[in-house]
Amino acid sequence: MKTLHALDRKHLPLVLFVSLLGTLAASLAQGQWPDYTQLAATLDQPLSRLRWIVGDISEVAFYKHELPALGLLLGACLAHVAHMYGYRWQGFAICYGSGLWPWVFTSSLLGLLLSHAFWGWTLASGTWQPTFVAFVSLPAAMVLLYGAGWRVTLSGALLGALLVTPASLLMVNYLCYPLQLPVVVGNVGGMALASLVAFMLCRRFPSWVRHSHKPVVREPVAAQPDYGVVWTLRRVLADFSEAPFFGNELASLGLLLGVFLAYMLAPAAPAYGSLLLLPMVAGQALASLVGVLFWRHQWQARGWYPTYIPIVSIVPAAVLAHGGSWQVVVGSAVFGALVAPPLAVAITQRLPAYMHGYIGNVLSMAVSTLGIVPLVGLLAGGAA
Length: 384
Description:
Largest sheet: none
Order of helices and strands: HHHHHHHHHHHHHHHH
Oligomer: single chain
Helix content: 55-70%
Number of domains: 3
Structural class: mainly alpha
Number of helices: 16
């Protein structure tokens, strides 16, 4: 019985991969997808609500669609299996080589489902609501900081639903909407403030996050990176899945293939029906490329640097606010790549050790978006 249990647990990622592949195939067989407006207008229907929930998984990249969400999870599952078996084609080891991806995913997914259970009623207002925030914030950060185990996993999920989601809801509805600020400011601002409170609570009540075991991690086979052209392109690709703490090329490839497929099937479905997906993705890739090239010395010295930040904040917020002109795409990408990563590191270095450094990243997103998006609008307006 013990051997069978160990075998089932060992092959759980593969089972998940096959199940998700079947789900994707069934979705493709339907042939037609509603656009974003239709989806948002029919959230009282079970299928539309399910699509919204699954779409929350890709919300952090501003894609909001079930196909990129499923692609992200398929790629991540494959990357985890490759990491566990030490395959060379695994790319950058998922979840920073911690071996914690199953726990990270479980805690994030539970946090997302609990958020919808507690706060899904806010969608009845008819306006967009940040129901996705628990999937890419505190639950995963707690698992990576405190380790594996159901105590940590469930604590992270519950605190994410009880603290992060309502904090973001309050900031979006009572700050961003009235002042006409980019909603990403409220999303990440809520993540930061709620996570500060959560980590202080975990320090005060350490039994919440006490764990009893660590995962078995197989060390990557890859040699010391040369930080050349191939590494640069791989790093740019991996940045697309950095926000959910995956940071892996296979996960990012699944995300991008999924969103391009969604765009081909129904152009008005992903990216909130804006029809701006292509300039958005171009700006996101350019932001990462500029950041990786400009901050290469930081990557070499530190082993990791938050060049992903503009991908999930400044660039998509600027494109949605000011359109997909080349001035907006290039301006938001370059300014975001140069300003946001060092600001994040400066904030993170001032955090206490019992807090996860992602708080510095999301605070940088909020501050940088507030400063850069209006600037890009002025520059693009002047150029026009």
